[in-house]
Amino acid sequence: MGSPQEHTMKKKLLASAIMLSTAFLMIPAHADFYDNTENSRERAGKCYRGARKPAVVADIQDMSTGSGKTAAQVKDAIIRAASANRWTVREDGGRLEATLNVRNKHRIVVDIPFDADKYSLLYKNSSNMNYAACEGERFIHPNYNVWVDRLNKSIQSELLAMPR
What predicted TM-score, i.e. pTM, was given to this entire model? Predict the structure, then answer.
């Protein structure tokens, strides 16, 4: 079984390993998308029940398409960017709706109003993303903002690549 000193040493090593692993798990994966204000954390704690630290839903609004684009060109750029990032797109009354399924576990849907001059990426719904609206704020799993930001950057790249 070992000496009392060996037993004490094993207990100390185990306690240290648990403390280190707990500290590691508390490091945020996407800190730039968190709203870390004290007030926001307090509000989130009342309504958000996800395993990860919640993020405030970040709608991307009125992004410029650059000059000289037609609405049809903007639509094509959005569809190409979405497809390149594994989103599926459908047209819904002059707007686009994009859906992302991740590992058949998470699903997010964004509404994309657009015209020749601007477009927006607006939260529509989700499943298994721990969405919660509470006290005038909307909270969600932090990866939502990462995936929508990636889509936005891809749309901007598609628009920049278009001939004038």
Answer: 0.71
pLDDT digits 0-9 by tens, 102-111: 999 999 999 9
Domain spanning 30-161: which CATH class is it, in words? alpha beta
pLDDT given at position 53: 78
Between CA 144 and CA 109 the distance in angstroms is: 10
> Where are the chain's structural domains?
30-161
Mean pLDDT of the residues in the chain: 80
The answer for 144, left when phi > 0, alpha when psi is -120 to 50, beta otherwise, is alpha
- How long a stretch of residues is the chain? 164
**pLDDT attached to residue 34:** 39
The token pair that represents 126 in the structure block: 């989700």
Residue 154's SS3 state is helix
The string of DSSP codes covering 55-115 is: EE---EEEEE--TT--HHHHHHHHHHHHHHTTEEEEEETTEEEEEEEETTTEEEEEEE-B-
The Cα–Cα gap between 162 and 164 comes to 6
- Cα gap 11→19, rounded to integer Å: 12
Residue 35 contacts residue 28 (beta carbons within 8 Å): no
